[in-house]
Amino acid sequence: MDKLRLDHIMGQVTKPVRYMGNEYNMVVKDPSQVSIRFAFAFPDVYEVGMSHLGMKILYHQLNERDDTYCERVFAPWVDMEEKMRQEDIPLFALETKSPVSNFDIVGFTLQYEMSYTNILNMLDLAGIPLLTKERGEDHPFVLVGGPCAYNVEPLADFVDLVALGEGEELTEELLDLYGEWKDSGESRNAFLERSAGIPGIYVPSFYDVSYLEDGRVSEIIPNNSAVPKRVAKRIVRDMDSVYFPERIIVPFMDIVHDRIMLELFRGCTRGCRFCQAGMIYRPIRERSPEKLLELAEKLVRSTGYEEMSLSSLSSSDYPGLEQLVRQLMSRFEEDRVALSLPSLRLDSFEKEFIEEMQKVRKTGLTFAPEAGSQRLRDVINKGVTEEDLVKTVSDSFASGWNSVKLYFMIGLPTETEEDLKGIADLAKLVKDCYYQTDKEKRQKGLKITISASSFVPKPFTPFQWEPQDTMEQLREKQQYLRSALRIKNVDYNWHDSEVSYMEAVFARGDRRLGQVLLSAWQNGARFDGWTEHFNWDAWKKAFEDNNLQPEFYAYRRRKKDEVFPWDHIDTGVSKASFLWMEWQKAQKAETTPDCRLNCTGCGIQRLGEGLCQ
Amino acid sequence: MRVLLEYTREERVKYISHLDLMRSMQRAIRRAGIPIAYSQGFNPHPVMAFTSALSVGVTSEREYADIVLTESMSIAVLKEQLNHALPKGITLREAIVIDEKTPSLMSLVERADYELRVDLLDKDQTRQAEIDWNKAIEAYENTAEIWIEKKSKKRVSTVNLKDGVWDIRIDEENPSLVHLEMKLGNKGSVKPDSVIHAILKLSEQLPNPEAEDLSDLRVSINRTGLYFQRNGKWITPLALKKG
Lengths: 613, 243
What we know:
The complex is a heterodimer of chains A (613) and B (243). Chain A has 613 residues and is of the alpha/beta class. Chain A has helices at residues 3-10, 46-49, 53-62, 78-86, 116-126, 167-184, 188-195, 276-280, 289-303, 321-332, 351-357, 374-379, 386-398, 417-436, 471-484, 497-507, 513-522, 536-545, 550-554, 575-587; strands at 36-42, 68-74, 105-109, 141-145, 161-163, 201-202, 207-211, 217-222, 231-232, 260-263, 265-266, 285-286, 307-311, 338-340, 365-370, 403-410, 447-454, 490-494, 569-570. Chain A folds into two domains: 3-232, 3-Layer(aba) Sandwich (Rossmann fold); 260-495 and 568-587, pyruvate-formate lyase- activating enzyme, CATH 3.80.30.20. A six-stranded mixed β-sheet of chain A has the order 2-1-3-4-5-6, with helices on one face. In chain A, helix 14 (417-436) packs parallel to helix 15.
């Protein structure tokens, strides 16, 4: 790498600190002293990627190994990409500025569908052939993991290996194997075959997909006798003994989540029917309060961070949360570390607790009722009531909060105008709660933000059989809310329906979409998740050129026994006996209780005895 | 106890912004366990002040920050602990105790010195730019007023560049090294790269005469010190040492 040339272009782009590295706690090793060079790639800009907890964990964990140097790679922003292409600078890793093509394994994390074109762009910038079949013995292996890896089919042509489920144990096993393989001098294909023997590793090229005439999948069968018919995800059993970093990189620049993230537990017992995370991360596994306090202590010391968030899918469900928060507060009050709970549920959020939390610093209040009416909240199994909301926001206003953000979705299955009206009614109700709060107690300057995203049916959820609302329907609903929410002190945010549409297509996509993805990228699509860069024409043309209809993926109601493109992946949750049954109950607005109270028989226990605590 | 810190910003971290630097210094102080004071009020923040912002991409041998501690501590211990807690590339050179009543550094400092090197960057090789600095400086001296556009976030204003410069000269030993002494702290302050651009343009030495900035060139700028006047002499902030 010509470091002078790189330095020169860094002087000409916005936020060059994105490409600089050298942050506090960055791991420094001599690449010539390791046998495995692993590039952890995040297909978005630095400030987004560095906010991701999974990257922090795996980066530091892999660097614990003497035989491995794990470095970070992010998508260069458009101005940087332009300069890199002009000056022939290949994609590089932050730590050593080495070209990514020199690495043994390039691991991308798939956090959202709309980052897929960035993956192709990054491979291209790295000079790595995009298609797996075009890669030779000297090219790195391309590995992917993360939530979108559960239906990786649209990327099947581009990735060599897929890691399903939690990466801590799986990646170690994969690297052990890689080390052995590298010494053995065996072929690239031999490594893929041996990898497929690791539970949780899926090699797409070892499976053939056939289609019916109408485009539905007919069957997915292995073309290699060494691989299983279905690949089950990996689950880390013990959250106290699994690796968690005691020091993490402290970025210079302001990143999206610039704080310590203390992971309370994995999984969620609520069973919200729209929520893919709630289904694919089962079962619930908690860290003990002792372990959390120990980690918090070490991380505060090693980073100097002034803020800590308790993270999980539903942090207020952590048993003994109040006690934990009190302990953390009293422990770190003197150090002025502010605590925040990002994913709060209304029903378990107590007033005293709110006051406890704002002792050090106020952080924003957000709630997610998700739907405007009780009926629709029952359909999606979001067990939150209007009374919960009223009580919590009233308490918050009385404790000095003046801004509240409420998250909703539009386009949920069975939604009617009545449900949309319910969103506006809730906004008004929150406003009333504010004005009913004692003038002495409340802060001036009320601000209510209503954020309504468009529902995207996701695989492995009870709504996976359902169509998404059409773009026209979504726009009409947004228009309706825009006028219904023209209320003083209330702001309304919505998402572009084209982006939600593409997200729906790729979420439930099949292998044929790989061609569309490639064409869209060739047509200039990248950073599709960034409104200012989403290029609708590039996508429309890509579908036309490849003779595929996006409607087929997004707008089609599936039959009960349709073979889905992701049916050979086993998340543990049963398709027929749990997800389908949940969908039937949803249509009758019947709720399913929290599985902490009573096992709902989702099937996860098939993946291991005694998995559920 | 009020303490003045003198530190560097080296090549490996030269792309951090002023805000990044302030945040990094705060966190390093927290990691070092230095008992920094916090402001009162709704959103307390550590009591610390910095001198004029250093542009992104510029290195510095001497930057200053001024912090207030809640209890006194040994300066030797502070230096050791803070250096240990700072990211590599930011090195604490010196720490001194200053009088509590010392005015803000920002208001004191009047001069920033820089050394500059300019290279041409070709597609296939890097070579030293053949710039005749004598000619460039001569052009500067023979022009009474050099008006340039200065962009701020809000508006574009026109300033006389010469009002922002104390002195400009070539290094006595190294003819490709230029020393610039810039004025700080008034409205007329200009950036070193604007000076380079202006004098290369005046002496007709820009590789691309139409270029509005120096992106065709590789410019290395290093700040060597900050100064203010006392009794007709230029002194560094370290002269504020108490007692």
